[in-house]
Amino acid sequence: MPSFDIDQIRADFPILSREIDGKPLTYLDNGATAQKPSCVIESMRKFYAEDNANIHRGIHYLSREATEAYENSRTQIKAALGLPDSHELIFVRGATEGINLVTHGLSDRLSEGDEVVLTIMEHHANFVPWQVIADRKNIKLHFVGLTKDGELDLEAWKAAFNSRTRVASFTHVSNVLGSINPVAEMTTFARERGVLTLVDGAQALPHGPVDLSEVGSDFYVFSGHKVFGPDGIGVLTGPRDLLNAFPPFQSGGDMIDRVQVSGTTFREVPERFEAGTPNISATLGLAEAFRYMAEIDWEEARAHEHSLAEKTAEELKSLGGIRIFGESPGKASIISFLYDVAHPQDVGTILDTEGIAIRVGHHCAQPLMDYYEVPATARASFAFYNNEADVEAFMRGMHKVQRFFG
Questions:
Q1: Same domain for 218 and 348?
Q2: Looking at 180, 199, 243, 364, which residue is catalytic?
Q3: Same domain for 10 and 56?
Q4: For position 10, which CATH number holds?
Q5: How far is C-alpha 338 from the chain's CA centre?
Q6: Whole domain around residue 14: which residue ranges?
Q7: Has 39 been annotated as catalytic?
Q8: pLDDT tens column, 263-289
Q9: Would the pTM count as exceeding 0.85?
């Protein structure tokens, strides 16, 4: 059984020992990007220092070695995700590119009058690509609202389906509210009605393993930089048969079968959607991040995260004048809030003087901000490597905000 030693875990992340203007770094912007353990950094350094070569093309030793490492990374991540045999894993730049690939591939299958069901809590990455397709194909988008505690209104979501519904696309975990959607129930409901599903898992995997055989979605996407891996890398999974029917998303080297003056034929997935030289080092780093995460006792890690978030929420409320967005039971360790004496930008600026990193603004979720009739919030988001000292530093910073503006 893996152990959960917070001091040892923090020692694995070199950036956590930094000081900002003489103050220890308190990093609470994990919803935007997570920090990287030394093993991930070292895996990428080692590739460039010892193994650097292009893949799928060379017959020399380094190329063969790099190709094997790249494809082993794919195999390792597929196994970690519990990916069904009928599905394939494609490396993309991140969740955003993965969603764009799906909307591009489905565009020829959608006709005027077809409908797509979304939720109001989606990140822009799962809003804008559908809006682009809707404008081009004259399809209808349904945006489903929330309950008072920030959960998806599941009954309203189900009621949005009709005979013209073709796709339902929704987040696994809200990047603003921390609300966890019942994705298995949602994908089952959609599948029974012949509706394709896409799940944005960018905020789910940082809080523990996700078994895609249980999730049951057609497509699932996430970004490497949020799961303690490198930036510029992500994953799209989907049914192999359907992906092979999609037109190429980008064209060029390595995704071709045969190129002639008279025309070109294309390879099947995954190569079909991995044109050109991929981000090899980041792929290896992402696989190393999954290996590292497999050593974490996630039952303890989740309990640790939730304890920190709950304590922070309680202490925030004790200040008075605090409004927290999203208070559903069992939510992920994300706290978005407004303080009635200070604009979120001012809150973030003062906290920064204390070495405290949070996120302020609309969090790439402007429709959700409009839904709540607020321009922005401040957001503290926790990872398993945060500790009690981070909560204490954050609250000292918030008391400084209170003194300055109160």
A1: no
A2: 364
A3: no
A4: 3.90.1150.10
A5: 24
A6: 6-30+297-405
A7: no
A8: 999 999 999 999 999 999 999 999 999
A9: yes
